[in-house]
Amino acid sequence: IAKYTELAPNNLEYDRSSKTYVATQDFQAVFPQSSAHQYLTELLATRTGIIDASSSFLGAVPEADFVPRPGRTLDETIVAAVIKAIREKLSIHVSYQSMTSLEVSKRLLSPHSLGHDGSRWHVRAYCHNRKRFSDFVLIRILSLDGIEECSVDPAQDTQWHTYVTLILAANPELETPKKRVVERDYGMRDGEAELPCRQAF
């Protein structure tokens, strides 16, 4: 606090009744400020238990709650093995349950990256069985059955390394006031929002 008051002598004053420093009316930010998005994300993280409230830098927090949704489970051992394989450039033998088959399949995967689709975690890997790069849902890896040296170059995964721009627009059949609401919700400019996205996603 002493160092901060040297940098910004007019920013703080000591409130004897609350025994704490408070911002003055002349407060001018010295350090970059948090964005509204960052504030609300941290608020949600404290409410959902992702971070403990005592670890948060939020000051006075308003009453807030969230709509619960089913959580996605993760197998700690599998996640650790996949991350190790990515870091050490290894291939892994796995048992995998896809939604397109009733049978568990044995696969040899060469993972290089992790991806999140907004709902669940995937590992991006070369599948030696199908001879192509694909996404594999982490929780659908049922077991790790062995490791070996990897001979696959992740640079060959062109879909992962290629970015495309998704262009979103409000439904043209909406009435003008409703279109404006949608455009404002998504920060659209000239009726469009551009989202750069990996082609693999």
From the spread of the alpha carbons, the general shape counts as extended
Per DSSP E runs of 2 or more residues, the count of β-strands stands at: 9
Beta-strand percentage?
25-35%
Unreliable stretches (pLDDT < 50, length at least 5) are none
Estimated structural class: alpha+beta
Largest beta sheet: strand ordering? 6-5-4-3-7
Radius of gyration: 24 Å
- Mean pLDDT comes to 90
Largest sheet: 5 strands, antiparallel
The end-to-end distance, rounded to whole angstroms, is 46 Å
Helical content class: 10-25%
**Tally of contiguous helical segments:** 5
| Helix and strand sequence | HEEHHEEEEEHEHE
Can you summarize this structure?
By secondary structure, the protein is of the alpha+beta class.
Description:
- 10% of the residues are buried.
- The longest helix has 13 residues, at 36-48.
- The chain has a five-stranded antiparallel sheet, covered by helices on one side. A two-stranded antiparallel ribbon has the order 1-2.
- A hairpin with a 4-residue loop joins β5 and β6 (132-137).
- The model has no long low-confidence stretch (mean pLDDT 90).
- It has helices at residues 2-7, 36-48, 76-88, 158-161, 176-185, and strands spanning 12-15, 20-23, 90-96, 105-116, 121-127, 132-137, 141-149, 163-168, 193-198.
- It has 201 residues and is α+β, with helices and mostly antiparallel strands.
